[in-house]
Every structure is written in structure tokens, then in C-alpha cells.
Amino acid sequence: MFVLCYRYLAMVLYHAGDTAGAIVQQHRELIINERCLGLDHPDTAHSYGNMALFYHGLNQTELALRHMSRTLLLLSLASGPDHPDVAATLINVAMMYQDASNMNTALRYLQEALMKNERLLGPDHVQ
């Protein structure tokens, strides 16, 4: 239960504008998830994803992208490379590259996400 408290506390702090405080709490959740659930658990991957979003909020793009790359790797291991969470994470990576004015890389990640979603949901799905 402590792990959920850290996760939600991190989110509340982030939305309240205390991104540095959010990172501290999210890091606590990340450590617990790594130790208790292992690296091959989706919750651990999502912990890295939240860290990436918080670092992105502080304009620490390189650190954010490093965490998001870890998220992609762990989600692929935990859930398979064609899981919807992998496609959603690819979109997050693309948006980070877009914000960093790296449009070619952003486009490549968006195209990969689109291909995964079309394979998963079909080309006519509303999402």
C-alpha cells in the first residue's frame, strides 16, 4: 500500500506545481517496485514513465528520454512489444522529441505507434 501512496502523492505534487517534490516521491515508488515486483513488471515500467513525465515537466529532456526509453524496454519485456501501453509510450516519446524540436525523430516514433495501434485495433478503430 505504501507504493500507491507514493505514486498518488507524486501525482498530486506534480499537478500542484511541485515537480521536484513529485520526483522525490516517484523515485520512492520506483525503488519499491524494482525491489518487490522486479524489472519485468508493468508497474515498474510505469514508475519509470511517470519519472520521465516529471523530468519532462522540468525541461530535463535528456533525462526524461532516458527514463522513457527504459519504460519502453520494460513494457516490451513485461507485456510484449505489441501491447497498447507500448504504443502509448511511443506517443509520449514522440511528444518529448517534438517539444525538443526534433520533428524527424518525433515523426518516426508516431509512425511506429500508429503501426502498432493499427495492428492491435485495426485501421478503422475510433482511437
TrEMBL record:
Pfam family, one: TPR_10
Coiled-coil parts of chain: none
Superkingdom, natural source: Eukaryota
Name of this chain's protein: Tetratricopeptide repeat (TPR)-like superfamily protein
